[in-house]
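Budget justification note: compute hours in this period were largely spent on complex prediction jobs such as the one shown. Inputs:
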Amino acid sequence: MISRRTFAALVASVALLPSLGLAQTAPAPFDNPGQVDIALVRYLSTGDFFQAYLSGVEKQAAALGVNLQVFDSRQDAALQADMVDQAIALGVDGIIIQHGLTESMKEAAQRAVDAGIKVVAFDVNVENPAIPQVEQSDAALAQLALDQAIADHGTEWVAGFVHVAGIAPLDRRAAVWAEVKAANPGINEVAMFGTLDNPIANSVANQARSVLSANPNIQVIFAPYDEFAKGVKIAVDEAGMSGQVSIYSADVSTADIQLMREAGSSWKATAATNPAVVGEVSVRTLALLLAGENPGAQVIVPPTLITQTMLNDLDIKNMEELGAKLPAFAHADVAMAPWMTLPPR
Amino acid sequence: MKPLSLTDLAIRYGFLLLMAGLIVVFSIARPAFLSPQSAVFILQSVAITGILALGVTATLVVDGFDLSIGAVATSAMMLSAYVMVIWDMGAVAAVVFCLGMGALVGLVNGLLIVKMRVPDLLATLGMMFLLVGLQRIPTQGNSISTGMMLSDGTAATGAFAENFLMLGRHRIDFILPDLVPLSVVFLIVIAVLVWGFLELTRHGRVMYAIGSNAQAAALAGINVAGYRILAYVISGVMASIGGILLAARLGRGDVASGNNLLLDSVAAALIGFAVLGAAKPNAFGTAVGALFVGILLQGLTMMNAPYYTQDFIKGAVLVVALVFTFALSGRVGRARG
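Corresponding output:
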């Protein structure tokens, strides 16, 4: 006679069968993912972007069924190098290095590789051919936003450009702006300004206010960092020019979405990579390495264009809805393998 | 001799027992905690704060305090980077400049306190702000890295010298190949030197005498002013050594690093009061205090505790250690007196 408990166990094991079937097709070591330990060693952790990145890493690790350990050095470069050593001593199978300084991470990363650990780096160049780089493409971000500006305004307009030199991602975005200007002589840049003084949006707003009074004919302002765009929007609103000036930017957050959706907002479009997707891609890249597959030296997470019209048409109010309603933003089809389980959407 | 009571035993050996207990608990929870690598990275993680803490101990011994150590260390880091990357000089010059800077800052601190009669906390607080600003003036607040752009638009030609980087990165073969970093060796050597100086030499005993009663020490014919200045010079030099090791590990003059050095090293020195029931600043206690914090933090990190719980536990340990020192041992001390 079958007792109730045995019956329940039978039902449970039948219910588990499909997942077992899936797991069997996965290559080692993912045929037994509970035995796989990975570590995320972080340099930057405060702010929306880094929180979202972490959630992406956590979700993808959970979907694969591996154990994730998070080391957070809080912008202490020496501590971050210690933490890599610590992960090595713990005997993890893989390490994701998230940001950091080339100078301090290069050797630590090499020690991990020497210890037979698979390593993936996100947004930090550790100068190691055995370590794939996961990157968001700043050039692609700027290109997408500028293509939209050209689609909206043609190739002849008066432009303002917000930039601070010496910050690597901003420099890469500025390089695209220079190319676009060179290819379209009708684009007339009358003002370039920018500052990173805190609070950034406020300082940029003060500058933009003077720029707008000096150049009341400006039609387009390219502000390839969302804090810049926030500041420019404040100045445009104060000057009562929101009907005349269009802002194109890069990056996105819930606050940005609200600003873009204000009635008559001058902020027309932004190009962004979803930090949660970048987190997922980082884990999948590491998983490919662990399974003995080659993800390539560079894994670039493609950005998505987000326009004011899209946000209004789809009634998107925050980052969660952006991910839910704009499938391109919720998933990047890079570093994929048929055996990988994706996080539930 | 009277046998020690339970309270005496608790005060004297409680902290060491607690540390042993922690090691046992962490080892059971994560067996990797007991590996030689694990022991080394605990030492490595406390090497710089430990050296700074030994410097603070010297000032605590003469009943002073040095709040500028963290700033001296980061200034030394920036200075060494500046000397090598921008002035294009070698490792020896960088080390000499840094040690000189540390000694000079210590001397100024000491003169402010002894000659100008500025209270120690205020003098070194002022020095801290001064240095935090000063170290960023030459580079307009930027980090110094090899090949950086200078304000005149040219690229820096110098680079971190290999033998300088070795100070923070070279690993000595010990049990396992490439195991023990040089910074750990520095910590151990400096700890032994400071301990020997404070406990075994006449100078050390004189400094303790000044710390417990400066007036009596002066009446006994001791050069109180000189010894107090010496304590700050020691502290400044120790802090600059810490800064040199930090720069050598990072390989750049990084403006974001080193913010926690002051608080972590002061905590180590204060926890050191409670070790062996000393109830006074002492080099052995400081080293154990630094080690204790290191063990605790590494163990908690291994058990996946987030950083804010670690801060919380670090604070709790410090409070308990201070209670040990001031309430429990204080009572015993009075009873003895």
